[in-house]
Backbone:
């Protein structure tokens, strides 16, 4: 089939159909928030709308070629596999990762801003009028408050892990109190807002429309096209619900025959690398005493700062920038840094007896989290054994009180757990709750035919192709890659005009490459 025929047959996105479906999905977002035990999503509420769109074109109803399999491991928490058969056995093209749960949203924490400047990783500046205060996921860009004055129709989606600084003020007319419901779809021109628009109900609607288009047109493709809509991506407290269970049961094995596009990023460009993450806590025990008698205390704050300096110095020596990071376009190498500090409290004239420093390791995919966790353990063990050698701060600063037989101590937890003061252990890397806190990064195969097809499709639709990598973390996909799948990652913004075109072009180009 000639490319012109394929293009003409596939056509373009039916905007009305897409918006109608997305509106229904966003309407369910309140019930698919994922934060157990308080909020356990019911993904079958989303599945119902997808089935309403695709069942009339399925073999189950006799209305079309789509083969649909609804797989549920927990009541109300289903996964959906939709297959459009190709003409040649073994040739596969799949779209996976469109998850039907969302991060939490509190409508009371959404504010209206008349002026807000956003500085993000690429140094571009945007004026925006809505931002969720805690979990930033959707930003509607404008120079004025939407409810108080006309706004433009530009839009920009922001993943919560992007390095960002916000500066702004509340709208003077409405004092930031204009109503905005994150659990319903808000439409202004080609701008779409609502919880899950990008992460990831917008992609659920996107791929549903793609499969509906294939079912309607009955386009003859050599490759079978499979879409896998999954449950439970946003939180790993409950396992065996989504793609992990599907892989374990072998239900995705046939997808190894071709590229697997994980549709869960947001920039319309191929994301070829993601980072691993190891959250850590460093609990430091000193000796509480009056600050007027510091020679009788072990200051855990000073001890934590000096110990962390040693840990970071050794980390950056053992895990320096990797040569492949430049090939993949990572803007930062692996990093280990503190992000939180806590202590039990007390008066300003009191040296506390303990404190806790927390942070994370962001690891490029060319290093393994298990190796890093082992090294961190070695660093802390060595500090505890040689604590007298740590730098001190001033003439009476010390970390050992020989007359009292007291030594400062460190306890490092590589999960968000509180361990006993005299207990030290590295939690094992496994597919358990302990595992969920430590995630390896992913480096996509740049020699993959699927990658080249994705680049060609992106360039054709967007006008340019600029693959990127980031040390933000995508869960699940490294495990899938390790199982032998050719994982490529992509995602699309919330502008209706181009949201689905790239996926259609992927299908077309992959079909042409198979001739």
Residues:
């Amino acid at each position: 089939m000639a490319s012109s025929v394929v293009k003409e047959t596939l056509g373009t996105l039916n905007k009305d159909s897409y918006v109608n479906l997305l509106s229904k999905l966003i309407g369910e977002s309140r019930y698919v928030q994922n934060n157990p035990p308080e909020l356990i999503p019911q993904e079958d509420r989303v599945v119902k709308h997808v089935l309403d769109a695709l069942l009339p074109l399925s073999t189950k109803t006799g209305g079309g070629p789509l083969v649909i399999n609804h797989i549920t491991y927990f009541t109300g928490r289903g996964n959906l596999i939709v297959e459009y058969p190709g003409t040649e056995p073994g040739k596969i093209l799949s779209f996976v990762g469109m998850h039907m749960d969302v991060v939490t949203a509190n409508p009371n924490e959404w504010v209206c801003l008349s002026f807000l400047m956003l500085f993000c990783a690429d140094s571009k500046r945007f004026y925006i009028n809505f931002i969720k205060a805690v979990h930033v996921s959707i930003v509607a860009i404008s120079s004025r408050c939407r409810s108080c004055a006309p706004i433009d129709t530009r839009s920009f989606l922001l993943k919560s892990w992007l390095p960002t600084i916000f500066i702004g003020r509340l709208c003077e007319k409405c004092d930031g109190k204009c109503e905005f419901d994150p659990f319903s779809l808000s439409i202004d021109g080609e701008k779409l807002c609502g919880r899950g628009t990008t992460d990831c109900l917008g992609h659920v609607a996107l791929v549903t429309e793609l499969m509906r288009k294939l079912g309607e047109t009955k386009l003859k493709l050599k490759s079978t096209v499979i879409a896998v809509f999954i449950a439970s991506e946003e939180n790993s407290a409950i396992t065996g619900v989504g793609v992990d269970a599907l892989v374990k049961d072998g239900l995705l094995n046939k997808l190894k025959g071709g590229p697997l596009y994980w549709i869960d990023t947001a920039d319309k460009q191929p994301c070829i690398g993601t980072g691993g993450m190891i959250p850590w806590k460093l609990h430091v025990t000193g000796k509480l005493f009056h600050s007027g008698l510091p020679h009788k205390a072990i200051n855990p704050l000073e001890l934590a700062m000096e110990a962390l300096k040693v840990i970071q110095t050794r980390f950056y020596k053992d895990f320096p920038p990797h040569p492949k990071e430049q090939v993949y376009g990572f803007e930062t190498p692996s990093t280990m840094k503190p992000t939180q500090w806590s202590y039990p409290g007390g008066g300003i004239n009191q040296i506390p007896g303990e404190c806790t420093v927390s942070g994370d390791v962001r690891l490029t995919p060319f290093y393994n989290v298990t190796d890093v966790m082992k090294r961190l353990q070695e660093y802390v063990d060595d500090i505890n054994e040689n604590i007298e050698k740590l730098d001190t701060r001033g003439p009476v600063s010390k970390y050992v009180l020989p007359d009292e037989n007291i030594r400062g101590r460190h306890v490092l937890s590589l999960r968000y757990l509180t361990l006993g003061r005299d207990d030290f252990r590295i939690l094992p890397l496994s597919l358990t709750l302990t595992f969920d806190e430590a995630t390896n990064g992913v480096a996509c195969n740049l020699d993959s035919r699927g990658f080249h097809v994705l680049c060609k499709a992106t360039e054709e639709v967007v006008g340019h192709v600029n693959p990127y990598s980031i040390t933000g973390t995508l869960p699940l996909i490294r495990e899938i890659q390790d199982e032998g799948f050719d994982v490529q990652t992509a995602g699309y913004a919330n502008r209706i005009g181009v949201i689905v075109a790239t996926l259609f072009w992927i299908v077309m180009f992959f079909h042409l490459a198979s001739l």
